[in-house]
Design a protein that fits this description.
- By secondary structure, this protein is α/β, with parallel strands linked by helices.
- The protein has two domains: about 5-45 and about 160-325, 3-Layer(aba) Sandwich (Rossmann fold), CATH 3.40.50.1100; about 50-55 and about 60-160, Rossmann fold, CATH 3.40.50.
- About 40% of the residues lie in helices and about 15% in strands.
- The protein has eleven helices and ten strands.
- It has helices at about 20-30, 50-60, 75-90, 105-110, 115-120, 135-145, 160-180, 195-205, 225-240, 270-280, 290-300; strands at about 20, 30-35, 65-75, 90-100, 125, 150-155, 185-190, 215-220, 255, 310-315.
- Helix 3 links the parallel strand 3 (about 65-75) and strand 4 (about 90-100).
- Helix 3 packs parallel to helix 5 (about 115-120).
- The chain starts with 17 loop residues before the first strand and ends in a 17-residue tail after the last strand.
């Protein structure tokens, strides 16, 4: 399986570290917990989308684009990394934000990722909650074409078969690190939303015959919808790679019990998880993705979900810049 045959630009600091978390492991009394530090990818404060953007930006360059368009929530980590990637390669960037969080604070609307988007020079547009975001991106693309520009649309979260290659590569990286350190990984856990990260991990793990289960902790929709979305993208990704039919429906598992009231809305368990990691391991997790994913993993450890397992890996997908947008909501005591 050669990813080198797909166009790619160098944006990320790779490989990212895989670190043992001794104090958290001891505190929870379950399996040994390792964290895959994809908050350390380097681009625009780092995060998981940088891996996807290495392939997406390369495809945009191949198609002679000079402006990229993407969409997300107001505090989108993906948007921030896309804006940084566009700046790095000399492209314009158009961001379309869906106002998903009602009664959002001034901090949410202006600080954190939004402030960084502006620093990177992105043009920001906002649309109402429930808007057809693909249609919104198409409209912006047509507007730019009329102005003589060549746009390239990047789906939300960078989640299509091209972007998912970034997490096929990450799965290979994790397996290589585990082999080097002689660690037998029993489960890989991460927050799952737009599906690209989980789909790529599932394909990479399956292509390597690793038999490592991938558990996604959902952050926005119910279990069946999330699993169906991931499964479809995993199948499309494997076919894009020339490996059709390797993914089975049972390879895709998501637990969506920790979403709370909805996407981007804080929960007590997320807040507690963020505090636990900060104070036991000195790590900063974001409130939208890794925070809820971490809350799910902690609760599942307490419920003996991982009973009999020795080592689990949690993928830290970055996004700590978003903490500043939630500073008036998160409790530090």
């Amino acid at each position: 399986m050669l990813l080198s045959r797909f166009p790619r630009v160098s944006l990320a600091h790779l490989p990212t570290p895989m670190e043992y978390m001794p104090r958290l492991s001891e505190h929870l009394g379950g399996p040994e917990i390792y964290v895959k530090r994809d908050d350390c990818t380097g681009l625009g404060t780092g995060g998981n989308k940088t891996r996807k953007l290495e392939f997406l930006i390369a495809d945009a360059q191949k198609k002679k684009a000079n402006v990229v368009i993407t969409q997300g929530a107001v505090q989108s980590n993906h948007a921030r990394q896309t804006a940084a990637a566009a700046a790095k390669v000399g492209m314009q960037c158009e961001l379309i934000f869906e106002k998903r969080v009602t009664d959002a604070s001034d901090a949410y609307l202006k600080s954190g990722n939004v402030f960084l988007d502006q620093l990177f020079g992105a043009n920001i547009r906002e649309v109402e909650k429930g808007s057809d975001m693909n249609e919104e991106m198409d409209e912006v693309a047509n507007e730019l074409i009329r102005k003589g520009l060549t746009p390239y649309i990047i789906p939300g979260g960078g989640s299509n078969p091209i972007g998912a290659l970034g997490y096929v590569d990450c799965a290979l990286e994790i397996i290589a690190q585990a082999n080097q350190e002689n660690i037998v990984i029993d489960t890989i856990v991460h927050a799952t939303g737009s599906a690209g990260t989980q789909a790529g991990l599932v394909v990479g793990a399956k292509a390597m015959n690793s038999n490592i289960p991938i558990l996604g902790i959902g952050v926005n929709v119910e279990k069946k919808l999330q699993e169906d979305k991931v499964y479809q993208l995993a199948c499309e990704t494997s076919e894009y790679m020339g490996l059709p039919g390797i993914i089975n429906r049972e390879d895709v598992v998501a637990n969506c019990d920790y979403v709370g009231e909805g996407y981007g809305i804080s929960t007590q368990s997320m807040n507690e998880a963020i505090l636990m990691l900060a104070r036991y391991e000195g790590l900063l997790f974001d409130p939208v993705y890794s925070g809820k994913g971490l809350a799910g993993m902690i609760d599942l450890i307490k419920k003996d979900y991982f009973e009999g397992q020795k080592n689990i890996v949690f993928i830290h997908t970055g996004g700590s810049a978003g903490l500043f947008a939630y500073h008036d909501i998160l409790k530090t005591q």
